[in-house]
UniProtKB/TrEMBL annotation:
Protein name: Beta sliding clamp
A single MF term (Gene Ontology): DNA-directed DNA polymerase activity
Domain DNA polymerase III beta sliding clamp central per the UniProt entry, residue ranges: 134-249
Record key words, sorted: Cytoplasm, DNA replication, DNA-binding, DNA-directed DNA polymerase, Nucleotidyltransferase, Transferase
Length: 372
């Protein structure tokens, strides 16, 4: 195998592959990337047995072939090469080495046989549809902060992507929750998606998927089965197992009877929460919200380190209310708001609070209060 590729193109492909590779694993081949050169295309394939990423890139292929080499090491070498360099990769099958040449730089890496590399079994997908990258990006970006990190509740360790009924008909919906906060994001249902089985997309897959979604013009082909989900662009395919579990009935958590309405500038609110939370060294320190007519006072009282208060002008016309929240959760939810105003709907100091962006109900957040 021998091919030449521009450094930036090679780096993009190798970086995508090496990010899937697990740093600590007991199977040496899983630390490698499978490189396959044929025609005028080179494919880079990496897997951790749960996720597989395949990146295709154009190259000048002099000799077709394939091999596997340490993904992290290859990425580090290519990253440190000068911009604009032409990089030639040559495999010597007899010596079990891959040489990397660029200008006066020359590297030689050990290889492992490509036959040992595990390729994820292809799946029959029940549903396939095409979705614009910005739509998928919004669905996952706005929900992923609420993914649980608690391994015992493994079925919450991802984003639940499914088709749901809403007031305007069926929608494509992403939901995530960790029991303390919840995010529910809706988008217009793409053509061909209505029969899709609901799947829980794992946290790591959500992180890898984000790298596919930066191009606003890109259309992403989404394929879903009961056990796998695949996201594909012309040059990149990300295939992942889904979490084998049942996502809880989240609709029971979303309050319907909250009538006390607070409207506040989302950016100013987030900055104020961040400022008052500074006096506390504890990440879970409660921020108290004291609401009176058109007035909000944020306060933190940390007996060991100090106290802080800040007043904000807001739109609030209901009876007086004091309620506490984890400062970190408030910040994360407030930072999701793209519009100017955040609308909070309260019931009492002990009930879940609902938050949305202005009058837009396609993004709904729920946060549990804390005792203060």
């Amino acid at each position: 195998m021998k091919f030449t590729m521009e450094r930036a193109t090679l780096l993009k492909a190798v970086a995508q592959a090496q990010s899937v590779v697990e740093r600590r694993n007991t199977i040496p081949i899983l630390a490698n990337v499978l490189i396959e050169a044929e025609g005028d295309t080179v494919m880079f394939r990496a897997t951790d047995l749960d996720i597989e990423v395949v990146d295709r890139a154009d190259a000048k292929v002099e000799r077709a072939g394939s091999t596997t080499v340490a993904a992290v090491t290859l990425n580090e070498i290519v990253r440190k090469l000068p911009d604009g360099a032409l990089v030639t990769l040559t495999e010597d099958g007899n010596k079990g080495r891959l040489s990397i040449e660029a200008g006066r730089s020359n590297f030689s890496l050990a290889t492992l046989p490509k036959d040992d590399f595990p390729v994820m079994a292809s799946s029959d997908y029940e549903t396939s549809f095409t979705c614009p990258a910005p739509v998928l990006r919004r669905l996952f970006d706005k929900s992923k902060f609420a993914i649980s990190t608690e391994e015992t509740r493994y079925y919450l360790n991802g984003v639940y992507m499914h088709v749901a009924d809403s007031d305007g008909g069926k929608v494509l919906r992403c939901v995530a929750t960790d029991g303390h906060r919840l995010a529910r994001i809706d988008a217009d249902i793409p053509e061909g998606a209505s029969g899709m089985p609901g799947v829980i997309v794992p946290r790591k897959t959500v992180g890898e998927l984000r790298k596919l979604l930066d191009d606003d013009e890109m259309q992403i082909e989404v394929s879903v089965s009961e056990t796998k989900v695949r996201f594909a662009t012309p040059n990149l395919t990300l295939t992942s197992k889904v979490i084998d579990g049942t996502f809880p009935d989240y609709s029971r958590v979303i309050p319907a009877g909250n009538t006390r309405k607070l409207e506040v500038d989302a950016s100013e609110f987030a900055k104020a929460v961040d400022r008052v939370a500074t006096v506390s060294s504890e990440r879970s320190r409660a921020v108290k919200l004291s609401l009176d007519e058109d007035r909000l006072v944020l306060s933190v009282n940390a007996p060991d380190s100090g106290a802080a208060t800040e007043e904000l002008a807001v739109a609030y016309g209901d009876e007086r209310l004091e309620i506490g929240f984890n400062a970190k959760y408030l910040l994360e939810i407030a930072s999701q708001v793209d519009r100017e105003n955040a609308v909070f709907m309260f019931n009492s100091s002990g009930d879940p609070t609902l938050m949305r962006e202005g009058n837009d109900t396609s993004a709904v957040y729920v946060v549990m209060p804390m005792r203060v």
